[in-house]
Amino acid sequence: MMADATAFGYGDLHFTWGDHICTIFENRGQQMSVMVPFMVQGIQEGQRCVWASPEPAAAAFREELMKAGADLPTLEASGQLIIIPAVDYYLHDGVFEPEKTLELAELLYEDSVRSGYTGIRATGDVSWLEGDPVDLELWEGYERTFTERLRGKRVVTVCQYDQRRFSGAYVVAALHTHPIVILGETVCRNPFFVEEEAMAERPQIH
Q1: 3-state class of 98 per DSSP?
Q2: CATH of 20-195, one of 3.90.220.20, 3.40.50.300, 3.10.150.10, 3.40.50.2000
Q3: What's the gap between Cα 21 and its chain centre?
Q4: How far is CA 91 from CA 38, 46, 57, 60, in A?
């Protein structure tokens, strides 16, 4: 089988390095049906795979990876697979500080390059946002900055939104900040994505 480094692993979707994608799902089954093939494809291509999520999603992910035949102890010991608790990735002393999370993402990227990985697949389940603990404007700004900082890097990132856990405003923010969206089982170029330049041209409301 020929290598296909940019195959997403779900359907016939191919990404471009630097893509920032979101998946919006309704249940754990939908989540895993998209995300497990994405990560398995990366493992098979010898890419580093990084997963950040609350524990329930991490446990389901581990279980499904093992069902797919992945050797988790070896993958984690080698550093090819990194599973991070969401509170460690997104929160610093219990507070969401966007720049610190972005710095951590960049450190992971730099370490991956030094370790010889030619591509990095990263994904975060943002269910820790349940109950709207973060200012919506702050969160949308973080997501938008993430899109900008990925450009030119050999990394693809997927943000996972469980629509049962958020107010509609967070889903709208996700749609505004990700050029590609996987909605349930449908993949599309996101018509609701707003470029940074367009945001700067919007009139400010005080």
Answers
A1: helix
A2: 3.40.50.300
A3: 7
A4: 25, 29, 17, 22
Distance CA 166, CA 155 (A): 27
- How is the chain split into domains, by residue range? 20-195
Residue located via tokens 């923010």: 173
C-alpha angle with apex 125: 91 to 147, nearest 5 degrees?
A: 80
pLDDT digit string (tens) for the chain, length 206 residues: 346 899 999 888 899 999 999 999 999 999 999 999 999 999 999 999 999 999 999 999 999 999 999 999 999 999 999 999 999 999 999 999 999 999 999 999 999 999 999 999 999 999 999 877 899 999 999 999 999 999 999 999 999 999 888 888 898 999 999 989 998 778 888 888 887 544 334 333 32
CA angle 174, 9, 54 (to 5 degrees): 50
Nearest-angstrom CA–CA distance, 86 and 73: 20
Give the whole-angstrom CA distance, residue 173 versus residue 97. 18
